[in-house]
Amino acid sequence: MGVSFDNDLNYYMVTEHVQRGSLYKILHEEKIKLEDEKAFRLAKQIATSLHYLHSKEILHCDLKS
Fold first, then answer.
1. Could you report the per-residue pLDDT of 12-49, keeping only the tens digit for each?
2. Under a CB-based contact definition with an 8 Å cutoff, are residues 12 and 5 in contact?
3. Virtual CA dihedral for 51, 20, 24, 22, nearest 10 degrees?
4. SS3 state at 2
5. What is this structure's pTM?
6. What is the pLDDT of residues 39-61, one digit of tens each?
7. Quick check: helix, strand or coil at residue 22?
8. How far apart are the first and last CA of the chain?
């Protein structure tokens, strides 16, 4: 993982490849139902990640399920 920006102050974030695809695909296309505990863990991980980004004054503007 890493981040970068260019001279125009465009920010780029490189993340790991997720083998099963996006969370959107799993939830909406494959129609997999998450147990409450797993959904809570995912939500907590996402919130923790966003909190970290915000603490570094990085705003994520394209969050999707």
1. 777 777 777 777 887 788 778 888 998 898 889 888 88
2. yes
3. 50
4. strand
5. 0.58
6. 898 889 888 888 888 898 887 77
7. coil
8. 20
| 19-47 core/surface letters (b: 16 or more CB in 10 A; e: else) | eeeeeeeeeeeeeeeeeeeeeeeeeeeee
| Range list of β-strands (E), 1-65 | 2-5, 11-14
Long-range contacts of 5-13 (CB under 8 A, 24+ apart): 11/58
Cα–Cα distance measured from residue 65 to residue 63, given in angstroms and rounded to the nearest whole number:
7
Structure tokens at 35: 């147990």
- As a residue count, the chain comes to 65
Per domain, the residue ranges of the chain are 2-55
Q: How far apart are CA 43 and CA 22, in angstroms?
A: 15
